[in-house]
Amino acid sequence: MKEHILVLGGGVIGLATAFSLNRKGYKVTILEKNNCGGQASGAAAGMLAPYTEIGEDPDPFFKLCLDSLKMFKEWQHNVKDASGMDFEFTESGSIHVVYHESDILALETRIAWQREFGSKAEIITNQNQLKKLEPNLSEDVVAAIYSPEESHVFAPDYVKALKIACENGGVNIYENLGAASVDSWETAPVIKAADGTIFTGDKLVICSGAWTKELEDTFNIKIPVFPIRGQICAYELEQERVNHIITSSQGYLVPKSNGTLVNGASEDIAGFSTEVTEKGIDRLVNWNKRILPFLERMDPFHTWAGLRPATQDGFPLLGPLHNAPHIIFATGHYRNGILLSARTAEVVTNIISGEPLDPSSQQAFQPERFTF
């Protein structure tokens, strides 16, 4: 009989990991303090856009994101089949816009190294071509990178489908447990819920997102994971058409098949508050019309916020503890949790099955790297 794996945290990373482990025949239990997918996961815009998100250099994090994008088409089919639930997966492509000719050189530098990793991106400076891609694009845009490989999902439905897929496969899911504590872990994990219920297993996967720092004293390591509030708004489109993910240095716009346009994200540090503020939404409203002028006459119909788990160096914590390989971290994905859900789940499953991370990733994502 295969091992029993406890997954601490029921966000998109925890659900995806449980789904992957369950498909490999492991007994899996998810322990969630609130509701599954209730924080960063369900609040996300659902972008699968590593070329757009990471423009600096091909570091291990970019490669992890790119690997996840490449496997996402098959992954989302598997989730749909296992859950019996459909959700939006749109291979829309993306455009990243700039407003000054002086910025074009930076675009050329970006696509030069990204092409080495399979990107089919091109820089478009012709206004007619830009208008063909996005008829409502502002004439202030002087150039854009068009990346045809990038895509997006409707995050709330994707998370729901993952949960259903887990349930259909026999994963035990416990929600609203409150502040669960790791009572012991040196030989095997023992988790105590707020009401005193005890959960035991053979291995523990920590997917607790912005709350992971609470485990510093438990494992006697530094865990610099902090909650970053991301505020988002959405518009109802009528006659207007938006075809692609559109990004700029200020944020993003993502059209959804339900006729809405998601605009994000205004980020700030507010502890664990998910309150939406006028100042935060105004930051979005003040720049979005520079991309799509028709937004000048529209007001958002919906606003919300989620907590994004950011690490000190921007890389997730992904891998086992040195002296306790039965404790595996999979947390701190910041604003790329949806994108990285597929590859993270695969990595954790491989580790538990006896296949370690490659050396470069092992060093970059080691959960104890801030302690040594």
Draw up the topology in text.
Blueprint (H helix, E strand, L loop, with lengths): L3 E5 L3 H12 L3 E5 L8 H4 L3 E2 L1 H4 L6 H24 L5 E2 L3 E5 L5 H11 L7 E3 L2 H7 L9 E5 L3 E3 L1 H14 L3 E3 L6 E4 L5 E3 L5 E3 L2 E4 L9 H4 L5 E12 L8 E4 L2 E5 L4 E9 L9 H11 L13 E10 L5 E5 L2 E8 L5 H16 L6 H7 L7
Parallel strand pairs: 1-2, 1-13, 2-9, 5-15, 13-20
Antiparallel strand pairs: 3-8, 4-8, 5-7, 6-7, 10-11, 11-12, 14-17, 14-18, 15-16, 16-17, 19-20
Helix pairs in contact: 1-7, 1-10, 4-7, 4-10
Classified by CATH, the class of the domain at 4-83 and 155-225 and 313-365 is: Alpha Beta
Rough shape? globular
Strand tally, please?
A: 20
Q: Gap between N and C termini, in Å?
A: 36 Å
DSSP helical segment count: 11
- Residues in β-strands, percent: 25-35%
CA-based gyration radius? 21 Å
Mean pLDDT: 95
CATH architecture classification of the domain at 4-83 and 155-225 and 313-365: 3-Layer(bba) Sandwich
* Lateral arrangement of strands in the main beta sheet: 6-7-5-15-16-17-14-18
List low-confidence stretches.
none
CATH topology group of the domain at 4-83 and 155-225 and 313-365? FAD/NAD(P)-binding domain
Helix content percent band: 25-40%
CATH-assigned homologous superfamily of the domain at 4-83 and 155-225 and 313-365: FAD/NAD(P)-binding domain
Sheet of most strands: 8 strands, mixed
Structural class: alpha+beta
